[in-house]
Amino acid sequence: MNRIAKVIVDVPARQVDRPFDYLIPTELLDIIQVGTRVSVPFGNRKVQGFVVAIQAEADTDKLKEIDSAMDILPVLNQELLELGDWIASDTLSFRVSVYQAMLPPALRAKYEKYFIRLNDSDEELERLFGGYGTLDFKKAEQVGLLPQFKKYLQDGDIEIGYAVKNKVTQKKNENGAL
């Protein structure tokens, strides 16, 4: 069984511009695919990364687990990953920087994800969404719905929406007024 993910971590430094092995937790086996963004422990912090390969065996026995999947469906396909590798080697860029440049702006900004129910006639979806038209991604992840929702996404019964957080800085005068 393929339970090891090779992850390029979001640490733009030459010595870490290579894949690191992480154990895929059982609850994420159906979610993690090549091209998926994940959150992983790296040193004493958590960082984002891109899964670039999945395999059965690791180079070492001491593996950390992937913390969470940031996406249900991959954001980069195999062709984009290969293009990113070529661009990185040809321009001497970091692989993670090239992969991030390939993402749409909404995925690079601070945002909240949520599921949108498109099929109003499915009783199971009605129950899972609690009668609402949307469901917070984090809440769905906490209660273990991501594997189930992956199938609904692929069938077109639900979709993922993004609420981009806008950091607007307003200039104030010396009295604190706008």
TrEMBL record:
Q: Does the keyword Transferase apply?
A: no
Keywords from the UniProt entry = ATP-binding, DNA-binding, Nucleotide-binding
- Is Lipid biosynthesis there in the keyword field? no
The residue ranges of the Primosomal protein N' 3' DNA-binding domain are 6-104
UniProt cross-references to Gene3D superfamilies, sorted A to Z: PriA, 3(prime) DNA-binding domain
UniProt superkingdom: Bacteria
What is the designated name of this protein?
Answer: Primosome assembly protein PriA
